[in-house]
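Please, structure for the following, as tokens.
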Amino acid sequence: MTVPSALSTLDASRLTPNAPLAPFTTFQIGGPADWLYDATSADDLAAAITAARHGGLPWFVLGLGANVLIGDRGVRGLVIRNRAAAHTISPDGVLWSESGAVVQELVLETVRGGWSGLEHYIGIPSTVGGALWQNLHFLSPAPERERTMFISEVFADCDILSAEGERKTVDADYIRFGYDDTVFHHRRDVVLSARFRLTKDDPARLHRILQENLSWRGSRHPWLGIHPSAGSIFQKIEGVGAGRLIDQCGLKGFRVGDAQISQIHANIMVNLGRASAADVRALIAHAQQAVRERFGYELTPEIGFIGEF
């Protein structure tokens, strides 16, 4: 394939035509991107987005590929795989990281250094950019688990490329953190890098939190390495629980093709090996209809549907 003129300024060695996207998602599902580009720094990421914008080429930034379902027919235009992962920790506990850094790797590094703030998010597949996009969250440490811990609690600021093409630093007021929601759901701004304020703590206590959280998640969530998934499929229904409603419809284990409602967690759908996006969409529709008919609730997907189905 001839490289579009809009992409001629990018490093050709990191630009791949007709690239399958399934290997780059936690669901292991998805057709090819017309063009896939590996962005290896914040500047590189900004340059790729700017090139696509100026050339009128559709574009999408892909992190670890969680919380998305990519269509079987793939994605038109340019998919930018965000691999910008440089990061530093200052002596006073300010973590600066490019947005493609993997949160789990940052968790392990900060815990080893005795820095608290990210340990709650062990085991959740996300980049820094994805964590801010979704306001990453998990329950507070055992035994209480009395409240939800949000990454916004340690957020300082971030550098973005705005929808208007401006690079600027923004704070929490701009981002408007909510539950599974931020400004990035509503504007085509892209996080380039971010800063977090961490605090000194006992590494032994932090390691205990890691172990407890991994154990808790492992008992309630299917293992990605065995049963790929996109995480929770439907938005939270306060006081009711989407997964509980699906479970009460007797749908744990129900499958369409190789897409199955998990036997462990009814709000998670897993890929048993060869599931297609069409299988998942049909399974989603079946769960929605069952819950609507039995309980009157409308289940709203929280995953992103990307590309052509």
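The two ends are 23 Å apart (CA to CA). The chain has a mean pLDDT of 96.
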